[in-house]
Amino acid sequence: MEKEELINIISYSVQHHEIAPGFFDYLYEEVKDSIILTEIIKEKFDFILSAFPNNSFFSLVLEELSCYDDMHSHIVKNIPIVLKYFHGDLDNLSTFSIQEYVNSHFSELVSYIPKDTFFAMAISDYYVQEKNRNLLNQYLMDYKKDYVSFLLGKKLSLSYSDTQLDTLMDVLVMLVDELLKHEELSYVDIKLLSAGSFSDVIEIGSKVVKVGDERYTYFMPNSPYFLAPLIRVNLEDISFLKGTIEVVEKVDTDIHISESELYELYRLIRLDKQIWLDVKKENVGRLLCDNTIHYKKTLYPDSITRGLLGENTTVLKKGDYVVCDLDHLVFEEVFQNDFGLRQNFYLSNAYDFEEKYQKSKIKND
User: Fold this and answer.
1) What does pLDDT average to over the chain?
2) What pTM was computed for the model?
3) What does each C-alpha distance from 49 to 19, 20, 29, 76, 111 come to in angstroms?
């Protein structure tokens, strides 16, 4: 291929959003003189990065390019261009050692890199050094609504538009601000936790906030074996959205609970005429404080407001196990009247615990 032909191929592919992994490998295999191709890519580097059809390809294509001639050093020298167009997890760019550049030019980045890339820096312990933490915190406060949406809006954004979620994000910002004040922390201290099946999850000091899709049922038993929610709001009660906001105490999830301990927790819940549909150690935590509300002021004190039915007179203590994922808990009566729910349960690993419980029940009768 001649230089003009290569320029035309690259230009056409960029304009029609056809740059994908394997594209440059193919070109390098086809050309007789790789140096010419490398020079073209360098000249058009900004143009090439400006038009990816799928952002997930971005880091993969950069990795591909870095294998040829001196493209790796060229990419490193042009980190500002990379950051201008990159949206996503900076860990995907770790081979290009961008941490040094980020911290040396932190205040400059604010003017030209995408907000979600800045947000990705904020949730990583790697990129932003202590000397820039105050600048980062100020940036997050300036764009707090966007940041809260980045942290807690992913699950709901699969079902609703940004416009539909706008008012909810205002509410969530007020909630986050209140929790930060209570914990005496700042936006830069918020930690993004692994998302569950239904929810986006963050940690603010001793509190965990979950926001996500509609549950099997909003109302659930007020059981001592469930992690007590400080706040639990059915979004349908305050908007047209279907979903739930929860605030709970942080628990220790780095546990080594045995199968017999897991069954005992299932049995105790079962004795209260309740079904735990998703029995696994990942949904269990060890209490870091007694299972009550720990807050400086009253938050939805009555159980029914939080979707909890019945009275609970037992308080589990620090060190006890509790179910900390409340998405898969229903009354036995609800379970018996829902054919689909029963079918899914019978096919799940959790049904082994139910069979064991029923055998034990027959034996003791």
Assistant:
1) 88
2) 0.84
3) 9, 11, 21, 14, 18
